[in-house]
């Protein structure tokens, strides 16, 4: 099979032996695999093992099953929950599996086990989720990032009527905005880039440029500030900004990747009773909720796919990732 092998920041396409499933595994023919900021960070991580196969947002069809797998057969379409939660640690037992260390470390396609930037991939059958009916498996590559956004929306306790501000209109900010809107929340997104604001408008979200009057405008539109701000920009100054635009007693959910130090004025947060809630990954139920959103088309994911690329274009796709900011989701179709 063909696969994209990553070594020292460069991909090369190679022919590898076909994966063989262990007893509890299935081999999936990959229909589509999404690329996200995590992949982009791993691409630039020094010391990643040579010939790593990335790809943790994917779906496809079963082509082979291990000896003890009964519930799947050839041709079944499935999305893959890439985190193998251990189910035994204190965090799993405390209903916070999204923090399970061994689960996150062993995530499919993040270095520990081969991912889906390959024609085929072997994964434990327990991590498969069935795609109903004749729906196109490719669109289910978006379930994983939608699950990340769903977890952030749930952590913020966003429901009908909640006033929500979103900082940063990259894929996660947009997905969280769409899910919040689907819950009946009043949503406004802010971004410094006009192309991203336009993208948000095209998806039916309220959004405007994060200029000098944006915070005041958000304050007025939400009659005193949003109860919940989802910080999806990852910018150093965004955390304190999120705290200051949130309504008294409200919540800030952090769902971006953060690589730099950030200063905040703790007194403002304490005085105004603002909670800061870090959102990382998702629980299995949240992945299943995202599956249901895609299956029912409550979220129309076809509008979220900006482009589909072949495996051969992988170096160009990663090089353009941070440049083409109007792109929502990029998919790789490894078998095309
Ligand atoms: Zn991802
Ligand atoms: Zn665990």
Give the class from helix and strand content and strand pairing: alpha/beta
Q: Which oligomeric state applies?
A: single chain
N-to-C series of helices and strands: EEEHEEHHEEHEHEHEHEHEHEHEHE
Integer-rounded radius of gyration: 20 Å
Counting DSSP E segments of at least 2 residues, the number of strands comes to: 15
- The percentage of residues in β strands lies in 15-25%
- At the first level of CATH, the class of the largest domain is Alpha Beta
What is the terminal separation in angstroms?
12 Å
Percent helix, as a range, is 25-40%
- Tally of individual domains: 2
Let me know the largest β-sheet. Answer: 7 strands, mixed
Q: Helical element count? A: 11
CATH fold category name of the largest domain: Quinone Oxidoreductase, Chain A, domain 1
What's the name of the CATH homologous superfamily of the largest domain?
Answer: Medium-chain alcohol dehydrogenases, catalytic domain
Each distinct ligand: zinc ion
Q: Could you report the average pLDDT, rounded to the nearest whole number? A: 95
CATH architecture of the largest domain: Alpha-Beta Complex
Low-pLDDT segments, ≥5 res: none
Label the overall shape. Answer: globular
TL;DR of this structure?
The protein has helices at 37-43, 90-93, 101-105, 143-155, 171-182, 194-202, 214-221, 238-245, 266-272, 284-295, 314-319, and strands at residues 2-7, 10-15, 25-35, 57-65, 77-80, 120-124, 128-130, 163-167, 186-191, 206-209, 228-231, 251-254, 275-278, 305-309, 329-332. The protein is α/β, with parallel strands linked by helices. The relative contact order is 0.16.
